[in-house]
Structure formats: C-alpha cells, structure tokens
Amino acid sequence: MNDHRTLRLFLVAADKKSFAQTARELDIPPASVTRAIAGLEAELGMQLFIRTSKQVTLTTEGAVYAAHIRPLLDSLDEARRDTMHAHKVDEGLLRLSAPTWLGETILPKVIAQFSKLYPKMSYELCLSDGLVDIVEDGFDLAIRISLQPSDKYDTWRKICPVPRILVAAPDSPYALMDHPGLLEPEDCLAYNEEGQSENWILSDGGASMIVTASAFSANSGEVLADWASHGLGVALLPRFNVAEHLRSGRLVHVFKAWAPPDLWLTLCYPPCQTLPPRIATLSEHIEKYIRPLAGSL
C-alpha cells in the first residue's frame, strides 16, 4: 500500500483538505481516495486525518508524516524526470567541462548552434585547464586537450590532433640556441597545476631526447605564453595558445626541427554502456564543428 502513488494521493488530500477534491484532482473515484487513505492508516497504525462533514484535516501524526515524505517524494519525482530527460535528444540539462581557451573562443558558437536545434536543452559549462574528475564532479561530457585519456574513462572519442611547438621571446638568448639539448631545466616553463617539473619528450624524426622544465609552472597555456613573451624561458604549448603572440612578434618558434608528440582534442564521458542520446547528439555536433578547424588548432 505504501507506494509512490498512494503517498502522493495522501499529500494531495492534505493540501486540498477534501477527499472529494482530491478525487477530482487525480481523476479517480472518491471511493478510491477513501480506500487508499484508510489502507495507509491501517499500514502505519495511526490516524492521519480528522474527518468531518465539511472537510478533512491532518492529525498531528499526519502532519509530521506529510512533512517527512514530501521532500522525499519531490526528490524522487525530480530523479524520475532527470532520468527520462537523459534519454531524450531535445530535453534536459547538460553539464560540460572544457579547457579555458576552447570554452571562451569556440564552444560558445558550438552551443549556440546546438541550442537553436534543441531549444529545450539547458547547459552548465565549467572552464578549467586542469583535469577534472567527470564522474566525481557530475559532468556529462568533458572536452580534453591532452595525451590519450587515462583508463578511468572507458568511453572517449578522438576528434583531432593538436600540435605543440617550442616558443621563446625573439630577443631572449633561447632564440639564438640551435639545439634543445643546450637548455637547462631553469630555462624552461612547465605546464603543471601542482607546481612540479615537466618532462618534454622531443624528436627530430630520428633522434629523441627529454628536456626537463622547472623554471616556472602554471596550469594555463595563456599564462605560460605571456611569461615566455617576457623572456622568462622557453614554453612548449599548442599553437592556439601562442598564435597571437607569433603574429605580433612577441614570440618566435624555436628549435623548429624538434617537436613533441601531438596532443589530441578528445571527448570523454563517464563510464556507460551506451551514451544517452542527448550526449551522443551533442558529441556529433561538436565533432562536425571542430574537425574543419583542426588545421588552426
């Protein structure tokens, strides 16, 4: 007896203070309301309503019971709606995580286009250059610019490569060096959110070497590019982080014969057997938009 429909009926009766109005509200026979309430009272072993010829009102025990179950039923209804929306293409909330640069320059246009196609969708966008835990933080989709995702993401989708280059200020001593082996750790700016050193694996197509970067560290490509433009060291960054600096001449491409492995722009999802349709549809839209831009990343 103590099921969701009976409890919701009980709350409607508590609000309406009338079994007859409750029956009309729920479009059921009045006798069904009476039987349901009587059955609930019998199951709980307490009287929930005081009945008079004009109305019904909650007993003290009934009021306490209503106060306990109302938020629980509301949460259950919300969970049901969210679960149903997750399997619709055109409704529901999408929580997204993306790198700062991508989220400020490209993603707004992508979401604006998608929103025109699916106007009932809503979005929460979190921008961070660090790696977020999409399961722990409750994201539906994370856009990464990194090496291959770790094993904790059993669903991920590569979109396009993101090349990186070594850059330095044109008037710095690093711009005059002809081999990265001449660099000391304190000459190199590390991309790291925990203030630690970074190892660069560089190759000229034949030989390879490792350069340790530990002069300064930051988890922002824009910050590292700005530091490098002020002559603080050499930075290893995606082209999109340094494109404007290169155009203005504040940075130059150094050690052009040497390059690291490309990063990848990747879509990562929480572990699931099948992507919910709305997430799959947005993923296809993102890929369709970004792939033609791959050469400029």
Q: Could you characterize what this model shows?
A:
With 297 residues, the chain is α/β, with parallel strands linked by helices. Helices cover 38% and strands 24% of the residues. The protein has helices at 4-16, 19-26, 30-44, 60-86, 100-105, 107-117, 221-229, 239-248, 277-290; strands at 49-51, 56-58, 92-98, 121-127, 141-146, 155-162, 164-168, 188-191, 198-203, 208-213, 217-218, 234-238, 252-253, 263-269. The strands form four sheets. Strands 4-3-5-14-6 form a five-stranded mixed beta sheet. A five-stranded mixed beta sheet has the order 11-8-12-7-13, with helices on one face. The chain has a two-stranded antiparallel ribbon with strand order 1-2. A hairpin with a 4-residue loop joins β9 and β10. The longest helix has 27 residues, at 60-86.
Q: Count of helical segments?
A: 9
Low-confidence stretches: none
Tell me the number of strands: 14
The biggest beta sheet, please? Answer: 5 strands, mixed
Distance, first to last CA: 61 Å
Mean pLDDT: 89
**What is the strand content?**
15-25%
**Percent helix range:** 25-40%
Note the run of SSEs as H and E.
HHHEEHEHHEEEEEEEEHEHEEH
Short description:
The chain has 297 residues and is of the alpha/beta class. It has nine helices and 14 strands. The model has no long low-confidence stretch (mean pLDDT 89).
Keywords for this structure?
9 helices; 5-stranded mixed β-sheet; 297 residues
